[in-house]
Amino acid sequence: MIEASCITLKLGFSIVITHEFFVIYFPKTNIFSTMKHLKFFTILIVLCYSCKSNSFSKEKVYLNVMVKFENGNNKSQLLAYSRVVKNRIFYLYKTKPEIHLKDSIVSINVSSNLDTNLLKRILTTKGKFEMWETYDNREIFELMNQINTSLKQLNIMNRFVDDTSQISLTFPFFKKLEPLIDNQGNLIEGPFAGMALYKDKALIDSVLGLEYIRGNLYKNLIFKWYEKPEKGYYLLIPLKDNDTDYKIRNQDMIRDVHIETELDNGKYIIIQMRKEYYSKLRKLSEYNIGRAVAISIDEVVYSTVKQMDVIEDGNVKLTGNYTIDELNSIVAILKFGEIPSLPTGIDFKLIKN
Question: How many domains does one find in the chain?
């Protein structure tokens, strides 16, 4: 069957448009009698082609995202996940996704031109917000140095060194986690325990998680990696895991999140706490004047800021070397609450319909 539209013009001819072609029908009239009519005829051809291309195109391309969960997740958890990610997607892309639930899968249809890396971030980041006191490089160095000795005692040096040089045998851990030292050999001030390449992060994590290391060398201390690398290296941030009355370890403490701009500092994120938690933030900032306070989301540090003043207004600044799209994705994650459970897998597929 051919669907057709017919347009009859007062100039004395008709246009018949179908999905495959268009025909211009001229009765017995001299439409080319003037140059004016010829120009008008040319415009009509362009308009008709546009009409054919846009109005009668049946093919729609969209991005289908299949988010998979363990079978133990009930429907209420999947609905809660869907509500959060729907708000995140709408904030980031200003478009409402189609979301369908089936068994342990959440199917999401969105525009095909969305950035899949940012989309994956907002779909798979739980959104657990935490603020931490930190150790300085100069405070943590001796502990990290002791791990060199522990590796020799545990007889696992071969996982860290591939040569027999004296420096490798003396400092095997530092072959993977490099200390931050300036050109004069002094430890650089800052909230970090060292830096490493991405390929070495898992090995370093496994050593720091060994019971022998945790039980004998440190307590009330955890390590998280900084989210963005610097010149290919990731910073390892040492955080104080103390049970204080000013801990900020819950996203429910957040009232609002938005982006602000300063002429000198560019764009950054403001995290506004609820009024009932102002006192906690005031104490945290007061006790850490001159020291860095870290902000983490899930298991990753997104910002470390040296605290210069006591925070009285409940506003926390999150800064870093982020693009505007990355900043917006962080806002989307923090603004609409945590997702109840993390997916076990995610697949992207372009669909033509």
Answer: 3
